[in-house]
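Encode chain A's predicted structure.
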Amino acid sequence: MLKLFILIMSSFLFFNACSIKNPLNNKSKYSYIDCPQTLILAPASKISNDQVTMTLNKGYSVNCYLPEPDSTEVVIEYNYSIETLYKIPNSKTEKIEFIVFITNKKEDIKIYEESFFKDIAINISEDEMPELYKEVSNFNDKIIIAKNLYENGIKSFIAIN
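Encoded structure for chain A:
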């Protein structure tokens, strides 16, 4: 009797295994793809004046993905940091423009350009401010381009202004 019960239960589970949805199956809706070569434009990697010097750090990262597996758009996500050295801090906020532009592989046609405006705030009181004060701010920005442009081959350039 016990063997018959085990046989019936295992048969039932075997035949229904395909129709039962696994609640632990969390498939990612993103499809990660190879990112284009990304370069920092050397002349536009640093902003300097008498009061402050801002530098786009070389330790940036780029992630590229399709939001849906059959998407016609590619998302390119930039994670970067800006190092700010205050020589004579006179304002609580510095404004900066992060620029991304995309060219074809030969770099002779600009395909896309976008600017992101950022405010970098001093996170220290004026009483505690040393003569030279350095701060690193982390940012994350995304652009979306057509998949057919991506498939033709692109290069990405980043800069600050």
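The mean pLDDT is 84.
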